[in-house]
Amino acid sequence: MTDFKLITDSQWRERLSAAEYHVLREAGTEPPHVGEYTNTTSDGVYSCRACGTELFRSTEKFESHCGWPSFFSPLAGDKIIEREDRSLGMVRTEVLCATCESHLGHVFAGEGYDTPTDLRYCINSISLTLEERPLDGE
Ligand SMILES: [Zn+2]
């Protein structure tokens, strides 16, 4: 099994497109409202585009109108890493893939969304790959 944490920057550049590399490996942010999964409502599982680990499910995706795919919970807490991000003069919580440590987005708490957690995992579409499949019983 590949140890994704040992992949070098130059290897990531070969594996990813320039836009994917910028977001996943340089903690970039795609522009709002343009990502392919912003408004997706299909049943399925969203995996890390860099390493393929399943991260989020459509059952936890909700319509936040913020311009990026939003989830109120990851598929499982150990799939992701959350760490403090003090870039851009703000204190935010960055969300990374636990398997390959690629940047996914940020998580925001207490915004008043009508979801079970009142968390908004604001994730770049380009960090994800959706596999459409029925989720009955998962
Ligand atoms: Zn990953």
Automatic annotation (TrEMBL):
Its EC number is 1.8.4.12. GO terms for molecular function: metal ion binding; peptide-methionine (R)-S-oxide reductase activity. One of its GO terms (biological process) is response to oxidative stress. Keywords: Metal-binding, Oxidoreductase, Zinc. Its cofactor is Zn(2+). It comes from the Bacteria. It is an enzyme of class 1 (oxidoreductase). Residues 9-133 form the MsrB domain. The keyword Metal-binding applies. PROSITE patterns: MSRB (PS51790). It catalyses: L-methionyl-[protein] + [thioredoxin]-disulfide + H2O = L-methionyl-(R)-S-oxide-[protein] + [thioredoxin]-dithiol. One of its GO terms (cellular component) is cytoplasm. This is peptide-methionine (R)-S-oxide reductase.
